[in-house]
Amino acid sequence: MTRTPPGAAPALLVAGTTSDAGKSVLTAGLCRWLSRQGVKVAPFKAQNMSLNSVVTPDGAEIGRAQAMQAAACGIEPSALMNPVLLKPGGERTSQVVVRGRPIGEADALNYRDFKDRLREVAVEGLAELRSRYDAVICEGAGSPAEINLRSGDIANMGLARAAHLPVLVVGDIDRGGVFAALHGTLALLEPADQALVAGFVINKFRGAPELLDPGLRMITELTGRPVHGVLPWLDGLWLDVEDSLALSVDRGPMRAPVGRRTLRVAVVRTPRISNFTDIDALTVEPGVDVRFVTAPHELGDADLVVLPGSRATVADLAWLRDRGLHDAVARHVEAGRPVLGICGGYQMLAEEIRDDVESGAGRVTGLGLLPTAVHFERDKTLGRPEGSAYGQRVEAYEIHHGRTTVDWGRADGAPVPFLDGCRRGPVFGTTWHGALENDGFRRAFLADVAAVAGRDFVPAADTDFAAERTARLDALGDLVELHMDTDAVRRLLDEGAPEELPVIPPAGPVLAPTS
């Protein structure tokens, strides 16, 4: 039996059969449920690969999903909750962020050189959280059955073994083949890893529960492990998603329009899109129709075009040109319709970009829609700025290498301030993420956009984005409370994985033992 180490709070690991199986959702739901039970709980993800990140109150950068999970716990996020963050920039390279600070770039091969150090950082971070809280719910990464990566794993079974964690494996039934995925995941693990897998959870189930019962009994008989919950499909749980996989699925139904017209927003989905969670606040506005686009013709009927953040501004700018989207954006502006650039998108709107840091491309011509110049610096700017616009208070966060200079005295059309950036005509730019989550600012901005675009649209007066997020977190807690064996979860936290769980024979030779 895996016991909690002396002096450490109980913890368990939520692993998944695949990426996007529901690890983040289940982790947040468990955190919300425990918090509502009066447990002082915290989330943890040892290693996260995501382009959606956020800045903590102490100025550290962590994955957005862990910040959402911290909100589910009712606590502020910290670097301890996501000690290692990988931010992909090219086809093979990622920026490595350790305890909230970038330490360099790594590719798939030389990243192995970081592994020993990062494993130590991850284990120490979890131990520190377990000393501060009553319970910790850990989220794995990808799948624990990625056997080619097991020897260097620090986020799944490598972490479970090092920290003595019982493991729940969640599978997405909506993909199909969930029982094969659960059984196969377990069978591919070496015996010492299998000994920590205490049960399964099935996610995104639609249909009559009794139709699933025979499968639940059979997977338990085949593996010796129970299914601790079947979570039903629930629309609208898309806020604060971790990666762009979620952009290929339904982002929830558009709410009924207010006023006589709908405001149509086209968000350009670049290959290295980051912090697209900035758009979440628009999607909860009644009458605002948001869609992600990748082709010029998809901008044709848009009232507002958004160029979101990017982990690789110059590369994504080249992609815009290759696709003809740069001309489509320019035509949109020539027609007098608004464009909003956020962070990397703001940088693309510049006349010139000098990048010897991120891409090494040197001087690059921007879209030329704002009288600005961008110079990339090696030190990353991380902050949680505050300001105002339209007479409304704005709280935000910023994550960028590029420093933008505005030519305020342009004779051909001087810009005016907009948050920390500028506006000229229908073109707006800012480095601030999260600004649209501020209700008063968002309403004023959308009203301005509608006026510029010539649309008869009136923002709702009562949309409360913070309340929307809270309602989604409560829905996750309800999923756990209503559809999981919470007594079994408590036992796993208190006692660890049961003794003598059966070993499932692998499909091939057993891998060499790993620590």
TrEMBL record:
One of its GO terms (molecular function) is ABC-type vitamin B12 transporter activity. Residues 13-237 form the CobQ/CobB/MinD/ParA nucleotide binding domain. Keywords: Cobalamin biosynthesis, Glutamine amidotransferase, Ligase. Residues 264-440 form the CobB/CobQ-like glutamine amidotransferase domain. The keyword Transferase does not apply. PANTHER family: COBYRIC ACID SYNTHASE (PTHR21343:SF1), DETHIOBIOTIN SYNTHETASE (PTHR21343). This is Cobyric acid synthase.
